[in-house]
Write a structure and sequence with these properties.
The complex is a heterodimer.
Chain A lengths: L1 H25 L3 H26 L3 H38 L1
Helix pairs in contact in A: 1-2, 2-3
Chain B lengths: L1 H24 L3 H21 L3 H28 L17 H24 L8 H11 L4 H9 L1 H21 L1 E2 L10 H24 L7 H17 L10 H21 L15 H25 L2 E2 L11
Parallel strand pairs in B: 1-2
Helix pairs in contact in B: 1-2, 2-3, 3-9, 5-6, 6-7, 7-10, 7-11, 8-9, 9-11, 10-11
Classes of the chains: A mainly alpha, B mainly alpha.
Chain lengths: 97, 322
């Protein structure tokens, strides 16, 4: 039963990665692409982490997976913000000058 | 199950080769660096699949993270000076002479043939030095065979690796001096919150990786690279500004690891022992001491390499980045 639930979770997470990749390839501009990537990656990795945590053997493994998901979500969101910020700054500077 | 893993391995191998080819063929320097980083991450995954987590950690931390940062910094440096010749549109410079291209191709083929002969000529299915290492493990003072080999059985090689890093930073300080670029503008409150959460955690992970190296994958180079990442962050955000007065301390930290390593190796000699032959009862203490000092040196050296110049106040110096 646990194995089935974890497979469903990991499968759903993979779908989010797939959607994020399609968004990265198909969306027209940087901000839309970032939107697709950060959402998909954050949720996708968390779902895969949940699925893996169900299969994990020990509490230590679960804690490690939780930490990995937390830091990946943090850095993903921050990177997306920094890239968008840089792009916006660069554009506004180009317009001003 | 094994079929699925075999399929995964095949896909991974194909992806590594394809990304390597793409990194060589693409004409934009930035794309090249991004592809190199992806290549490094996939190689780290391949090392995991080859059951070599130590190498995977080193590849991810040094080969990918820090080397990628160094390459991006170099590209920025070149672009700021208008020297990035390999931009799209600026590619059509002098073509490489055909003789040079053929010579390079010939040499590359010779290297490949040599590697092929070495691989095909090596005996199949014989144990290497694993049994010898396993037998000597109780004498090494640590439980992780990789650390035992790196810091004890083949410590001389590792000392030379530390010396290579030291030489690199000496050369960089010889060829580039100056105040360095102006402090980066603030990256905003989001980044500050992120840094407050992650930098202490990164420091903890770096020290943990160093400490865990005695019995699990990890060690001085991996831990040093993680600590160096904090140094990079501090440099990038202007949290730390290299100052000419800090050079003495920096030099001390550059040589600290090499000196401690070499001094320990020589001091344990005598009384029937050769250099690098640690007495088994003190081996773990000595190895951890060496690793800790080498980690500090590696972290400071890599950070200095990223900064890429000796911080000297030059009067009327126009050479630094705008």
């Amino acid at each position: 039963m646990t194995a089935i639930i974890s497979m469903v979770l990991i499968g759903a997470g993979t779908l989010f990665f797939l959607a994020g990749t399609i968004g990265l390839l198909r969306f027209p501009d940087l901000h839309c692409q970032l939107h697709a990537l950060t959402k998909a990656d954050g949720l996708g990795l968390t779902l895969i982490g949940l699925g893996a945590a169900l299969l994990a053997g020990s509490a230590g493994d679960v804690a490690r997976i939780a930490l990995i998901c937390a830091f990946a979500a943090l850095s993903g969101a921050t990177c997306g913000h920094l890239i968008a910020r840089h792009a916006r700054r660069g554009n506004s500077e180009a317009r001003d000058v | 199950m094994s079929d699925a893993l075999l399929l995964f391995d095949l896909l991974l191998a194909l992806a590594v080769v394809a990304i390597a080819a793409a990194a060589l063929l693409v004409r934009d320097a930035f794309a090249m660096i991004v592809l190199f980083v992806v290549f490094g991450l996939l190689s780290a995954l391949a090392w995991v699949r080859l059951a070599a987590p130590d190498v995977a950690l080193a590849e991810a931390a040094i080969g990918t993270g820090l080397t990628g940062a160094l390459l991006l910094k170099t590209l920025h440096h070149l672009r700021a000076r208008g020297m990035a010749g390999w931009q799209p549109g600026a590619v059509a410079q002098r073509p490489v002479p055909r003789a040079v291209a053929w010579l390079n191709a010939g040499l590359a083929l010779a290297v490949m043939a040599g590697l092929g002969v070495a691989i095909l000529g090596s005996p199949l299915r014989v144990t290497g030095l694993e049994i010898a290492v396993a037998e000597a493990m109780p004498l090494s003072g640590v439980e992780n065979p990789v650390t035992a080999v790196l810091l004890n059985f083949r410590a001389y090689d590792t000392l030379m690796e530390v010396v290579v890093l030291l030489s690199a930073v000496i050369v960089v300080w010889q060829i580039e001096r100056g105040a360095g670029p102006a402090p980066a503008p603030s990256l905003g409150p989001v980044w500050q919150g992120f840094a407050r959460l992650t930098l202490p955690a990164a420091a903890l992970v770096g020290v943990y990786v160093l400490w865990a190296g005695a019995e699990a994958p990890g060690g001085a180079f991996q831990g040093g690279a993680m600590l160096a990442a904090i140094g990079l962050m501090m440099l990038l955000t202007g949290l730390y500004r290299p100052h000419p007065d800090h050079r003495g301390l920096a030099r001390l930290l550059f040589v600290l690891g090499t000196v401690a390593f070499a001094a320990t190796a020589l001091l344990v000699a005598g009384g029937g022992r050769a250099s690098f032959e640690y007495p088994p009862s003190y081996a773990k203490t000595l190895i951890l001491l060496i690793e800790a000092l080498v980690t500090i040196s590696i972290a400071v050296t890599l950070t200095a390499l990223f900064h890429g110049r000796e911080p000297v106040a030059l009067k009327g110096d126009l050479r630094h980045d705008p």
